[in-house]
Amino acid sequence: MLDRLRGLFGGGSSRETPQASTAAYARPADPFTRQSNGLDQFFSSLQDRTALTVLDFAGASQENVSFITSMGHRLSSEDFVRSIDHTFGVEQTVEAQADPLLVDAFIAENLAFPPDSFDGALVWDALQFLSPHLLQLTIDRLYDTLRPGAYLFAFFNADDKARHIPVYHYRIADHKTLMLTPRGSRPAAQFFNNRAIEKVFHRFESVKFFLARDHLREVIVKR
């Protein structure tokens, strides 16, 4: 069974898992900032309301907790990419992600939330490292755990020739600015064009795409 550690700080909850291999989480480049129109719209959906609960797949960080709590909301943090590595291996394969025991452990560890638990989800780039089957299980769990009208914000790599995809730590600087710190790369589980993303989120009310100059395709989805 996977190790678990839950902590509570800044009005939110967080989960931390043991460190993966040093090579997997070496930081080969300096942090950089990125403007995000999708993030701006996500936070607009939380304005003028208080005491909401947001799910953050970036892992526990004081920057994200401070920003969300300054809006009067709570933050629950999960390092989803690290958990993928811990469960299936850094160079995970479709076969590993098809193992029923590993899949059950992964879902129980990371997505065992009651229905209608969250008013928003920041999943960042985590979904693109899942096999089609595990991805759909994850999306279905996210659908159930989000309240009606909630928004989910995600990044997908738009480079259809990339065999490995860069991974980042995402830290919130302000309502439309992110600080990205590289954390290595992972194999591309599948390529996501707009049609594929719409199909994955077919149960949701709407899917909106934001154009960007880099290889990150921003997506905001309404439950």
Structure description:
The chain is α/β, with parallel strands linked by helices and 223 residues long. It has one domain: 3-Layer(aba) Sandwich (Rossmann fold). The protein is built from 6 helices and 11 strands. It has helices at residues 37-44, 62-70, 80-88, 100-110, 132-145, 194-200, and strands spanning 6-9, 12-15, 32-35, 53-56, 74-77, 118-124, 146-157, 164-174, 177-187, 206-210, 216-222. It has an 8-stranded mixed sheet, sandwiched between helices. Helix 3 (80-88) packs antiparallel against helix 4. The longest helix is centred in the middle third of the chain and has 14 residues, at 132-145. The two termini are 32 Å apart.
How are the secondary structure elements laid out?
Blueprint: E1 6-9, E2 12-15, E3 32-35, H1 37-44, E4 53-56, H2 62-70, E5 74-77, H3 80-88, H4 100-110, E6 118-124, H5 132-145, E7 146-157, E8 164-174, E9 177-187, H6 194-200, E10 206-210, E11 216-222
Parallel strand pairs: 2-5, 4-5, 4-6, 6-7
Antiparallel strand pairs: 1-2, 3-9, 7-11, 8-9, 10-11
Helix pairs in contact: 3-4
Ends distance: 32 Å
CATH topology: Rossmann fold
Cross-sheet strand order for the largest sheet: 1-2-5-4-6-7-11-10
**What is the number of helical segments per DSSP (H or I, 4+ residues)?**
6
The coarse silhouette is: globular
Give the proportion of residues in helices. 25-40%
Q: What is the CA-atom radius of gyration, in angstroms? A: 16 Å
Unreliable stretches covering 5 or more consecutive residues: 1-27
By CATH reckoning, the class would read Alpha Beta
Secondary structure class reads: alpha/beta
Mean pLDDT comes to 85
| CATH architecture tag | 3-Layer(aba) Sandwich
Number of strands: 11
SSE order, as H and E?
Answer: EEEHEHEHHEHEEEHEE
Percentage of residues in strands: 25-35%
Our count of domains comes out at 1
Main sheet summary = 8 strands, mixed
Would you identify the CATH H-level superfamily? Vaccinia Virus protein VP39
